[in-house]
Amino acid sequence: MIKIDKGEAGWVVSLSWLSALEEAARDFHGPKPKLFCERAYEHAVQHFLRQLGDEFGMRTEKSDTIRSAIEQYIQMGVVGRLFQDASDFEISETNPFRVEMTIHNCRYLKSCQALIDEGFTAKDLTCARLGCFRAAVKSLANMDCDYQLRSFDIEGDCQGYIERL
What is the 3-state secondary structure (H, E, C) of 104-164? Predict the structure, then answer.
């Protein structure tokens, strides 16, 4: 029997919880659990940022744009080991109210692929990565936004947008 290293084990546990959360959301809210998941992502981001502050003294600054909030969340995520590298994210500001994102090497791809295999489309997915970036914008820039995953590729990238309401 092999022994899984601590970092990889953390991702297995995280992916298990995320998959369970998404399944429970679909059990109660049908094929479109986005509102429920948005709230869960908001709580997850708040807890993550608070833990980084309380346990490690890492503080976030308020942002004034969608892009700056996302960039700050990426920085905190890299330092907090939520993300491996900032280069895993490409951000393109369409205008001050809309940011396009490409996510490389998403750790949640298997969870999304399971839903695709069940017949869902990319637009049906709640996308934990984009959902948490949206939640970070709400928390750090005090802007409510919508987000949508546009494309998903198990071998490559996910693409979507975050847009101010």
Answer: ECCCCHHHHHHHHHCCCCHHHCCCHHHHHHHHHHHHHHCCCEEEEEEEECCCCEEEEEEEE
